[in-house]
Amino acid sequence: MRTDAARNRARILSAAAAIVAERGVDGLAMADVAAAAGVGVGTLYRRFGDRSGLAYALIDARERAFQQDFLGGPPPLGPGAPPRERVRAFLHALADRTVEQLDLLVMAETAAPFARFGGAYAAHHAHLSMLIAQHSPGSDAPTLADALLAPLQAPLVAHRLRTGAVTPERLKAALDALAAW
C-alpha cells in the first residue's frame, strides 16, 4: 500500500473508531467519517464499499490479534495444551471478543446473507475442526465445529444479552457443555 493510502486508511479507521466510541455503531455515517478523516466520501466508498465494510475493517485488528493468539500464543489458547483445553480456551476467547465488539459484528454479519461466513469464520472453523479431529479422530469435525460456532453469531448473542436471557458467563458455560463431547 502506498504511504499516502496507508496514512489515509489509518486516519479513516481512527475517525470511524472515535465515532463508534462516541455515538455507537448506529451513528457511523460514511459522510461523518470522511469529514473527520479529511478525505472524500468517494475515497471511503472505494476503499471500504459501505458501512459494513468499514465495520469489518474496524474489527480486523482485533481479529488478527486473536488469530495470532490461537495459532501461536501461549497455551491453552495457543499450541501446547491438549485439544479439549484449547477448544474451551478458544470458545471463551471468541465469546469475549464477540461481546467486546458486538455491535460492529452484528453490522458486519448481517450485511449480506452469507456475510458471517467470510475469512474470520473460515479461520475459526478450520482451527476448531483441527482440534476436534485431534481429540476425536473419526468424528465429523467440520459439522461439530459449526455447532460450536453457531451460538456465537453476533445477532443471536446481542439478542440474548439484551433481553437478559443470558450473560457472558452463562454463554461460556453453555459452550463448555456443548464442547464436552
UniProtKB/TrEMBL annotation:
DNA-binding interval(s): 29-48
InterPro entries the UniProt entry points to: Homeodomain-like_sf, HTH-type_TetR-like_transc_reg, HTH_TetR
HTH tetR-type domain span: 6-66
PROSITE patterns assigned: HTH_TETR_2
Keywords: DNA-binding
Pfam families in the cross-refs: TetR_N
Keyword Transmembrane listed: no
PANTHER family, per database record: HTH-TYPE TRANSCRIPTIONAL REGULATOR RUTR, POSSIBLE TRANSCRIPTIONAL REGULATORY PROTEIN (PROBABLY TETR-FAMILY)
Protein name per UniProt: TetR/AcrR family transcriptional regulator
Organism: Nonomuraea longicatena
